[in-house]
Write a structure and sequence with these properties.
Blueprint (H helix, E strand, L loop, with lengths): L3 H34 L4 H22 L1 E5 L13 E6 L25 E5 L7 E9 L3 E5 L2 E4 L2 E3 L23 E5 L4 E5 L9 H4 L2 E2 L3 E11 L23
Antiparallel strand pairs: 1-2, 2-11, 3-4, 3-11, 4-9, 5-6, 5-8, 6-7, 9-10
Length: 244
């Protein structure tokens, strides 16, 4: 009898050890399942990151600033074909994405501003012109000389005439125009290359709602001439230039 008790105790202890081991094993398996049940989806996380980058970029592009490439020569020599400028869209009132509403402007366009605007006639086309006069001002051109409110306005420092002829009134509005008063919420715009620019002398006043932004800096510049070597087509001196 004395020898049976330790055996039963040993069996009980062994049974407890087995139970404990089995319980530990179950806990370990359960913990392992919990750890591997929801592994991080790196593809999904990466997609979310890219989506946020795209959304933020679109908001900035629509509401704050956008780069524009100069294609035509109507603003020579202030801006050259191949210049890429940065336009400040926030200054004249940022447009909210999707809903299309426009926030109040910090200020309205002023005479002398170089602006990016939607073409008033050709849908989808963008132009870069200089503001000459704003609402309430009187615009007139006499033999190529520009007047605003009967005061002569000099040609911009880098502006130019390329045709020595003076076209009479009735033949063309290029060299003789007006006088006309700029309507409410409208602008009169011209290119600095006065003899070849198609502008308000031809298609009339531009509504302020057509203005997209103010040209604030030339980001980089590239000469279109294919005969020049690649490294000579980069206009390094124009990088960071502020047009005025």
């Amino acid at each position: 009898m004395a020898t049976g008790l330790p055996l039963r105790n040993c069996q009980i202890l062994n049974s407890q050890e087995i139970c404990v081991k089995q319980s530990d094993k179950k806990v370990s398996e359960s913990s392992s399942k919990e750890e591997t049940a929801h592994p991080p989806n790196r593809l999904l996380e990466g997609g979310k990151f890219v989506l946020w980058v795209v959304v933020i970029t679109m908001v900035l592009r629509v509401s704050v600033a956008e780069a524009y490439r100069v294609e035509m020569s109507s603003m020579e020599n202030t801006l050259l074909p191949g210049d890429t400028i940065l336009g400040n869209k926030f200054l004249y009132g940022a447009r909210l994405p999707l809903i299309g509403l426009r926030l109040p402007p910090i200020r309205n366009p002023r005479p002398g501003d170089i602006i990016v605007l939607q073409h008033p006639v050709e849908i989808g086309q963008r132009l870069i012109k200089r503001v000459i006069a704003v609402e309430g001002q009187v615009i007139e051109i006499r033999d190529k000389q520009l007047y605003v409110d009967n005061q002569p306005v000099p040609l911009p420092d880098r502006g130019k005439f390329v045709d020595s002829r003076v076209l009479p009134r009735g033949v063309s509005n290029r060299d003789n125009f007006g006088p006309l008063t700029v309507p409410d919420k409208s602008l009169f715009v011209m290119g600095d290359n006065r003899d070849i620019s198609l502008d308000s002398r031809g298609w009339g006043f531009v509504g302020r709602d057509k203005v997209l932004g103010l040209a604030i800096i030339i980001l980089y510049s590239w000469d279109h001439d294919p005969t020049e070597p690649f490294w000579e087509r980069i206009r390094w001196s124009r990088f960071g230039h502020i047009p005025n």
